[in-house]
Amino acid sequence: MTKKQRDALIKRLKNPLFLAALASGLYQLLVRYNVAPDAGTYQLYVDLVNYVLLGAGIYSTFGNTETNTK
Hints:
The chain is an all-alpha fold. It has 3 helices and no strands.
């Protein structure tokens, strides 16, 4: 996988509509195999994952702010 392809994949994965579709599809799959938690609990898991992704995205924008004092 080239850097250009990887960057395009990451950009696609950060799309909120893609994340919503992925979460919805996963829940339908879990319901189909009778292993899904109730909808409220699943929504909490989805929110948690989204907050982690958002936090990781924000954290990755911070540059190295340490200065060399030697």
